[in-house]
Amino acid sequence: MWKLKVADGDNNDPYIFSTNNFIGRQVWEFDPDYGTREEQAEVEAARENFWKNRHLIKCNSDLLWRMQFLREKNFKQTIPQVKVGDGEEITYEIAKTAMRRGAHFFSALQASDGHWPAEIAGPLYFLPPLVMCLYITGHLDTVSQGITYTVIRNEDGGWGFHIEGHSTMISTTLNYICMRILGEGPDGGRDNACARGRKWIRDRGGVTSIPSWGKTWLSIFGLFDWLGSNPMPPEFWLFPSFLPIHRANMLCNCRMVSMPMSYLYGRRFVGPITPLVLELREELFLQPYNEIIWKKVRHLCAKEDLYYPHPLIQDLMWDTLYICTEPLLTRWPFNKLRQKVLEVTMKHIHYEDENSRYITIGCVEKSLCMLACWVENPNGDYFKKHLARIPDYIWVGEDGIKMQGFGSQEWDTAFALQALLACNLTNEIGPTLKKGHEYVKDNPSGDFKSMFRHISKGSWTFADQDHGWQVFDCTAEGLKCCLLFSLMLPEIVGAKMEPGRLYDSVNILLSLYKNGDLAAWEPATAPKWLEMFNPTEFFANTIVEHEYVECTASAIQALVLFKKLYPGHRKNEIHNCITNAVRFIEDKQMPDGSWYGSWGICFTYGTWFALGGLAAAGKTNKNCLAIRRGVEFLLKSQRDDGGWGESYASCPNEAKSFMSANTLEADTGNNCMYPKVLSLYETVISICIYPKVSSLYETVTYAMYYVTQTGPYNDLNGIYIIDPNGASISVNCMLQQLCPYRHAYLSLYQVLCRQSIR
């Protein structure tokens, strides 16, 4: 039976180290003797229930860690459940009771170090490369205990790019290989998984049409020839940094993926050709492997995977590199340059590994960097340090074992604390607030400013401190939490953060400031035309950093609060930043009053952040047309039952896709509760626009319905966000979001219900 362990690490292990004694770390450990027979049966029942409903409910409810935490804390809900009938008046006391139930239940899910554990997975191409890497390096047995199957997500036998997506060649191929590595035969797997997956692949012409990342991993594994891939010359790392095409100008995620990929390509590395590899060559191709003309498959991409067709200029660039450049660089004397640049590339890889404590920026990079270190030295310490950090990526739910994009501990905890603070229940949940405050205070990372990295002193990460990568909306939300706690009694919530550290956080937010807009990871300085050289076929907006409404709005809220409490620090710069940020948000508004959200679903999510930022800057219905139009959009998109239901399809299509009543009923609420929370919050923020907002009553009623007997939400709710990690920032990739995120918003939801009634 699996058990979630928090802040766990061995300080005596020479291959793992931490900057803060592993605070925020969450890892799963398999113990066959853990739990009673009844508890083990409960876990198996949850898994079996998910399997039976896997085509209807595709996101899990994180039941395993919730059951563990509630059991370990012996939590018993003592606050009576609220039930509201149709047409029944919702009083202040009813709303307060529902809020208190949610807050107490949510507090019971807090980890011992102060954060709220969470899964952030969903893409189905994350785990197979890790398994392939461990198979190649001969270390599969050291970490594969309990990895026994990969769930088929789609009824046609294939795997989607993410759990809600249609079947794709890259995910189906990689998951098929993963199952074969883990011991399933050609016709093995539950529900005839392997045979059905193989049929899906062969019906579409075999794996020669797998997109570029798939071609890379198949070449590494010995199932493709490197001649079948477009060039990834590591010589790019020797270009002067002032050139637009230098990798320092790339989005950090793209840069971190390209480093190990270019290294492995430059080495033309191929893993051992085992009997399994030879079997897979026969199973996955329609023609004999030795008869394939590899140069003819370089530009092939299955139609199911093609989201971003390459422009002609990009194909011409690849052809030039393939025909003219690569033959030169692989022959004397130019191969001497290739050897030199491979050393430079490994220097960058080692630097990034060390600064992230071998977690790396995300899961795609993790497998590639770990393999690159093994290729350099199979017995070296670099590779062993990578092995020690694999558990940081593994998550276990009732739907099986997954590889996360990376952690989301800081992001979740910041919103969780803001929701609990809004409940105004300090006397009841003081210990929870104190632990959360201590966790948030501990998180700012160090200062480094080389190897193409932006400053990070004073920032917060998306995950934990060891991860090391600054994220600026996380910094804004973390700063906001610390400022709110500084207004409270230290005897209850602990000592406030020192002003100097708050100044550091403000300084790094201002370092991102350009024309009022803020990016996510690093300053958005590269020209946007570089996006035409995006080498992937299944992502968009992956090459350079972009500015985001959500990040900008979070920064506004944090800076406005900081300015009130510390008016003397960089006063004019903060004022100018807020003024221009407001203008940026107003300019980004859609004609119908909404905002596109790049980090959540989607127009509802973006509108929530935008309205929150504008309201924090002092904008109201009386002085801001954007607010009036934003709320008008929300009211027009509200459903008859009082809620909002936006589909994830809004994200890849970049067009509004609201869920119909029939869709919501069939989906059992999968994407419905989360937009309701955000939309009510937005509407209450701007309630002065319409003295008569009758739609709030229906929404509040819906919220009360979802306050279940155990806690604040229905198990079947799930939400997804746009992928902000190793898979790059893409409007085509969804991450399953996180049980605490749902709890936090429902707690806030109930607070707003109470305030609206008052």
Explain what you see:
Helix 3 packs antiparallel against helix 28 (739-757) and helix 6 (169-181) packs antiparallel against helix 7. The strands form five sheets. A three-stranded antiparallel β-sheet has the order 3-11-10. Strands 1-2 form a two-stranded antiparallel sheet. A hairpin with a 2-residue loop joins strand 4 (394-397) and strand 5 (400-403). It has 758 residues and is mainly α. The model is unreliable at 664-677, 685-692 and 711-730 (pLDDT under 50). It is globular and about 75 Å long. It is 47% helix and 5% strand. It contains 28 helices and eleven strands.
Strand content: under 5%
Task: Summarize the amount of helix as a percent range.
Answer: 40-55%
Mean pLDDT: 85
Provide the low-confidence segments as ranges: 664-677, 685-692, 711-730
Q: Give the helix tally.
A: 28
Distance between the termini: 47 Å
Structural class: mainly alpha
Please state the oligomeric state of the protein chains shown.
single chain
Backbone shape? globular
Q: Please give the order of strands in the largest beta sheet.
A: 3-11-10
Number of beta strands: 11
Question: The biggest beta sheet, please?
Answer: 3 strands, antiparallel
Please tell me how large the radius of gyration is: 26 Å
Observed structural traits:
mainly alpha; single chain
